[in-house]
Amino acid sequence: MPVYIGIDLGKNCGYAVLETRGPGKPLVLKNGVLKTSGNYDWFVKVNAILDEVKKQCKSQKVYVAYEEVTFSKGMASARAYGGYRAMLEVLVKQHGFEWPLIPLSTFEVKKRFGGASFATKEEVMEGVFVYLCLPRPSKKPDLNSTDALAIAAAAIKEKRK
What we know:
α1 packs parallel to α2. Strands 3-2-1-4-5 form a five-stranded mixed beta sheet. It is built from five helices and five strands. It has helices at 39-56, 75-95, 106-114, 121-131, 143-160, and strands at residues 3-8, 12-19, 27-35, 62-68, 102-105. The chain is globular.
């Protein structure tokens, strides 16, 4: 039963850990947002999540997917994104997870769960909640965490093709 980790790269890093059990809907093992104050803090917190997954999933294949940003708001954010991606690559190799990483374009994730490549984050959230059969939360969740759910779920769909 493979495990898929979805990472929404950024200073407020969304993450989701899904386990597949046959052809049915994946099970959400963990989901949240890591609020970080910089590169070192990001590396330490993401490393802790991957350590936890490795301990829980000793004999399972673990795939890591991330949302590949093809445009940015400026040079500083492009450099930051590149740094987060490079750190993620180091961590994935260090933990011995499946290689290569699974890059998913923003448009691909939006289309898969929001119905169109220009879907809003809220539409993607709604679509991924339906796909994963998750109850609606009483308060609006952090959209970085729901993006990570969508990334992990899209990676599962991609691998099942």
